[in-house]
Amino acid sequence: MTASDDPAAPRGADALRQAYDEWSEAAAGVLAKARKVSADELPDTAEALLSTTTGDGTVVRPLYTRKDEVAESGLPGQFPFVRGADPVRDVNVGWRVTERFGDEGGSAEEVNEQILDAAGNGTSGLWLKVDGGIGADGIATALRGVYLDLMPVTLDAGAEGIEAARAYLEARVAAPVAPQAAPSTIANVQSLGLSPYTAQFSGRATVDVDAATALAADAPEGVRTFRVDGTDFSQAGANNPQELGLSVAAAVAHVRDLVAAGRSRAEALGQITFGVSVDDDQFAGIAKLRALRTVWARVADVLGEPDAGAAVTHAVTDLAMLTQRDPWVNMLRSTVAAFGAGVGGADQVTVLGYDAALPAGERSSSASFSHRIARNTQLLLLEESNLGRVLDPAGGSWYVESLTADLAAAAWDVFTEVERRGGYQTALSDGWIGEQIAESLAARDLRVAHRTAPLTGVSEFPNLDEAARPAGTAQTVDLATATPKLARVARQFEALRDRADAARTRPSVLLLPLGSVAEHNGRTTFVANLLAAGGISAINPGPIEPDQIAGLTAENAATVAVLCGTAKRYASDGPSALAAARAAGVDRVLLAGPDREWPEATDRCDGSLRVGIDAVATLTELLDHLTDGGSVSA
After folding, report:
1. Looking at domain 508-628, does it have CATH number 1.10.10.10?
2. Which of 246, 201, 196 is nearest to 423 (CA)?
3. pLDDT averaged over every residue in the chain
4. Methylmalonyl-CoA mutase alpha/beta chain catalytic domain: from which residue to which, for each copy (predicted)?
5. Has this prediction a pTM greater than 0.85?
6. What are the distances in angstroms from CA 374 to CA 20, 123, 440, 488?
7. Which residue of 226, 245, 513, 556 has the fewest C-beta atoms within 10 A of its own C-beta?
């Protein structure tokens, strides 16, 4: 007899409660064993101890069960559009692989060659840089030979937006028509890309709002005028609820303008597309797109037009997450971001080049190579992993549904607070939006500095053998998608690396390993990686005795040393090693590990290198000492 056959076995809610209690007891036992205490001595429940809080305040629990079920959210293409905006999406195509053109300059003819080549190699959507590139008068040439009824186009024309929009609409009329008609789907929506409200925040060149609103009155079917670009907020440091809530607030401001100009509410809602940033947190990316559709559908419902509430989304891999150091790791970041965007139901996805954070002159690969890698990242997801063949594959997951609901609720709170303050324009002009994002950026910077938000190749496992970058270029990003308020996640550590590279000789610190390799290896490795994150080399002579310290100090001209060992070894050999280092003239002696491991009632080290410290502040202080204290001349 199985448990389910036993008439006395608990069922329904009772069975769920019993299963949860059994899991909780088992998890508490493991936690207690790891902490070397009894389960009764744990400070909280197993679920609470294993839960984590994301940077935007969302609590992620270790276990999701049937009690976390949410109401059915309908089918893709049906209100409230959580599961997708498109009811007739072609699963053989999936989302649109939208490639960006015009950033590298070149004539309209050259851009046209690039577009046609890309179209023959998997690109199914175009994002065209106009201002500072081909210009409005080059649009027709750049799009020559392109089936614009099949290939959705998004313009990025900045201050030339009105002229570019008119030029594009003329080119669209004259464009060849595909032999086989394209289905009328959201995937084929064209965007004139005008972003006056979000660009006002980020400082990008843009167009006059009234002129853009007037242009929208003449937009033909299948063409949307406004692109509410959430990347304007995310690049400045906005968290996910802020990006979504502020994007919706800006979109509502456009809707009000359009209604005031004589458009119906449904028509006004149909003039908006959304640009959404996605980073390497795949579940957050999935939930972010689902939450945006949820919130926008709710806005449409409040306006009395629920059927017009399908948000058209263009997901773009986050430029702020890309690093200048060890840029090859960006390929992994972008792959995860694209995965999240696709699974989350983005209508179009753009993967930026893996080297996009570097100035053009410092990129080791050609632009065509970077474009191909970005394009093929999506094609592998679509054509080998078949991610586009299932609509909303994460739907029904207790975790994803809960995360979506939490994020949508947080975004709605941001949106309603903006409305309470008088709307988007007022909240922007009185500085509230800037203040909120500045607070979010400061919190993110703190997490990065303490390495609770680790960056592979930058704050973790850095490569000191990389070629030095030109001085003064740490924040330089040539890519036109960069806004004046771009605050890259890695910028604090990369500024330290640039500073260390600018020294005549690389700054170095002497390690003083105590005991056997087994005793010190974990901490010498930790310290070496921590120092390398600031561009500082760790000199590891292997296990040492106190009487060797004077010679090692003189040989390496060391002014800073780090004692590395176990608490037991610190108790036996630490004081004598510290005394020897001081006698040898070492200015600062640091401890690898927490201060509590050092024996009491003895001379103490000058600081400690351990998990959880403000690594940026510590490394900055070390560089100050090493470059100004005589060990290294800058």
Report:
1. no
2. 246
3. 92
4. 140-502
5. yes
6. 44, 10, 29, 20
7. 556
Percent helix, strand, coil in the chain, to 5, is 50, 10, 40
What CATH superfamily is the domain 96-429?
A: Methylmalonyl-CoA mutase (3.20.20.240)
In degrees, rounded to 5, the angle at the alpha carbon of residue 479 between the alpha carbons of residues 474 and 483 is: 80
- The three-class DSSP label of residue 384 is helix
Q: Rounded distance, CA 407 to CA 292, Å?
A: 9
Q: Which residues contact 572 (CB under 8 A, 6 or more apart)?
A: none
CB 198 within 8 A of CB 243: no
Q: Which of 123, 520, 470 is nearest to 324 (CA)?
A: 470
Task: Check whether 370 has a pLDDT greater than 50.
Answer: yes
pLDDT of residue 477: 61
Cα–Cα distance, 399 to 68 (Å, whole number): 8
The three-state secondary structure class of 229 is strand
Which is it for strands 59-60 and 52-53: parallel, antiparallel or unpaired?
A: antiparallel
Residue 528's pLDDT is what? 98
Helices (H) and strands (E) in the chain, counts: 21, 15
CA distance 200 to 484: 11
Peptide bond into 80 cis (omega under 30): yes
In eight-state DSSP terms, residue 365 is: S
The pLDDT assigned to 4 comes to 54
Closest listed residue to residue 331, CA positions, set 360, 350, 351, 345 = 351
Domain boundaries defined on the chain: 96-429, 508-628
DSSP 204: -
Amino acid identity, position 536: I
Nearest to 334 by CA among 277, 275, 280, 388: 280
Between β-strands 272-278 and 313-317, what pairing exists: parallel, antiparallel or unpaired?
parallel
| Per-residue pLDDT reduced to its tens digit, 300-320 | 999 999 999 999 999 999 999
Residue pair 187/94 in contact (Cβ under 8 Å)? The answer is no
What is the three-state SS of 464-531?
CCCCCCCCCCCCCCCCCCCCCCCCCCCHHHHHHHHHHHCCCCCCEEEEEECCCHHHHHHHHHHHHHHH
Predicted local confidence at residue 2, as pLDDT = 46
- 3-state SS class at 140: helix
DSSP 408-450: HHHHHHHHHHHHHTT-HHHHHHTTHHHHHHHHHHHHHHHHHHT
- For 229-243, how does the pLDDT look when each residue is reduced to its tens digit (9 = 90+)? 999 999 999 999 999
Cα 213 from Cα 191, distance rounded (Å) = 14
Question: Model confidence over 127-139: pLDDT tens digits?
Answer: 999 987 799 999 9
Q: Which H or E run includes 349? A: strand 348-350
Q: Which among 13-17, 48-52, 478-482 has the top mean pLDDT?
A: 48-52
8-state DSSP, 205: -
Q: DSSP string of 3-48?
A: GGG-TTS--HHHHHHHHHHHHHHHHHHHHHHHHTS-GGG-SS-HHH
